[in-house]
Amino acid sequence: MGQLHARLLANAVDIANGDLSQLCEAARVHAVTIVCGINECDRRNGGGTLYNSVVVIGPSGAVLNRHRKLMPTNPERMVHGFGDATGLRPVDTPVGRVGALICWENYMPLARYSLYAQGVEIYVAPTYDTGEGWICTMRHIALEGRCWVLGSGSALRGSDIPDDFPSRAQLFADPDEWINDGDSVVVNPQGRIVAGPLHREAGILYADIDVSLVAPARRALDVTGHYARPDIFNLQVRRTPATAVSYVDE
User: Fold this and answer.
1) What is the three-class DSSP state of 248?
2) How far is it, in rounded angstroms, from Cα 133 to Cα 135?
3) Taking the model in full, what pTM does it have?
4) 106 and 204: one domain?
5) Per-residue pLDDT tens over the stretch 86-104
6) Which domain holds residue 73?
7) Residue among 111, 82, 105, 100 nearest 148 (CA)
8) Does residue 36 fall inside a structural domain?
9) Cα four-point dihedral sign 69, 241, 237, 224
10) Are 41 and 67 in contact (CB under 8 A)?
11) Exposed e or buried b for every residue in 24-46, given b needs 16+ CB within 10 A?
12) Residues with Cβ < 8 Å from 65, sequence gap 6 or more?
C-alpha cells in the first residue's frame, strides 16, 4: 500500500503549482468548458494529503472552481482527506450554470440541496459507481433538482492496469475483464435519459443540452423555492476553509 500511495501522490495534481496548465490551455484554445476529476495534492499544507477533487475550467483557460469531496467513501478514507465547502457551488459558464458532486457525495441530500439552492443547471457527477441503482440515482437527481445531469463513469478493463502495478498478474489476470462497467449517462430535467448509459464501453457520450428547459421544469417543482418550507427546515452551509495552520505576518 505504501508503494501505491507514494506513486499516487507523485502523480497527483497541485493546482497552485500549475499542474493543470496544459488542460487549461486546451480549454482556451478550443473555447470549451471542462469538468475534470483529479487526485489533488496541496503542497501549501504540507503536501502529504490527497484529495478526491473535481475542477471546472472555463473557455478562457481559468480554473473557475475546485471542489474537494466532502466525505471519502469507506476505503477511500485510507487515501483521501476530507474536503470543505469552499467549492460547494455552481459557476456560470457559456453553456450554463455548472456544479459537481463526486461519486457517493450524490447520496448526500444536503450537498445536493445546496447546489439546487444556488441554481445549478448542469449537474456533473464523476463517479466510480455503476449499475441500475446508480443510473436511477442520476435520474432521481435530475427530476428532484430539475436540472441536466451528466453522470461520468469510469470504464475500466484489466488491460488498462499498468504492467508494473504491484501484484497485477494476481489481481487482474484477465486483460478482457471489466473491472468497472462505466455507465456514463445524460439525463434531462424531467428525469429522462437522453444519452447512454455507456455500458462496458470506452467512448465519448454526446448530447445536446438546452438549459432553457430548466426554468419551465421548475414551475411545478422547485425544491429550494416554492416547494420548500423554510419555516420548518433550514440548511446552513459553512464555507470557511478548513485549514490546519493559519499564519499572521509580522
Assistant:
1) coil
2) 6
3) 0.92
4) yes
5) 999 999 999 999 999 999 9
6) 1-83
7) 100
8) yes
9) negative
10) no
11) beebeeeeebbbbbbebbbeeee
12) 55, 56, 87, 89, 91
